[in-house]
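Narrative progress, year one. The postdoctoral researcher (J.K.) led the effort to move from monomer predictions toward full complexes, under supervision of the PI. The following entry was the first complex the group processed end to end, covering 279 residues in total.
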Amino acid sequence: MYPPKIIKNLQKRALTIRKHVVDSIYLAGSGHPGGSLSITDILTCLYFHEMHHDPKNPQMETRDRLVLSKGHSAPALYAALAEAGYFEVKALNKLRKINQFLQGHPSISVPGVEISTGSLGQGLSVGIGMALAGKLDKKDYHVFVILGDGEIDEGQIWEAAASASHFKLNNLIAILDRNGLQIDGPTEEIMSLEPIPLRWRAFGWHVLEIDGHDIEEILMSFDEAKKSMKPTLIIAHTIKGKGVSFMEGTLSFHGKSPTKEQWVKALSELEQEEQELYD
Ligand SMILES: Cc1ncc(C[n+]2csc(CCOP(=O)(O)OP(=O)(O)O)c2C)c(N)n1
Ligand SMILES: [Mg+2]
């Protein structure tokens, strides 16, 4: 159990990040709101509670590492990094603009970004390299990798899954953003994934299932993952577009910016939710 104050503070932080996601994609005129909003609560818990990191010293050797393998959700990562203090919040307003540093997919030129991503399927392999290095160097950091459910269609994910258990990487925690949608439709129609828990257990992983918008469940799943002797997959059941009514559970906001009217409506919904938290 976590104190209600901790939970509430993280919920407030997540709303701030959701507002940045909506604002920055609106101002950019393009981007991926759906998959950014589905991982916002997870990223908030990582950067504002779970991870050992220092925005003033992004290269600190003992830091926990985060790999955003589903790189198209960069707006949520940038918002979390800016709120954490890696760079100025106002930089978010220049998302995807020519000659600005926050491009559509994460790049290592951005403070706090561990690895450039965007080509799906590669991040788990990179996370394995980081986790293996941690073992070899006898450092006790953890590596977190956020995967999309459509992304795990990629064959490279399964080679990586096999090697993580082979190398006994219990310092590796993968989080599957199980929002049920990929670019062309529902995951089970495009390339059925189930039974996900059995498949990953067969590959030697410890598997947990949580509500990926429940702050307490997210925090507790990290605690449990860190006790495991195996790499852990946290299947986080989420809603694509979470927090904005007309984006929730839809394919249409996978990769599309809101119109001006939609932007205003989205912000007013998020602000109302924020107000309720402060009451
Ligand atoms: C190798 C590769 N193929 C195709 C794409 C284009 N693409 C970007 S997002 C996406 C859908 C991913 O679905 P999912 O992993 O479920 O992401 P989410 O639902 O979290 O947005 C695709 C196909 C890509 N970025 N990389
Ligand atoms: Mg998905």
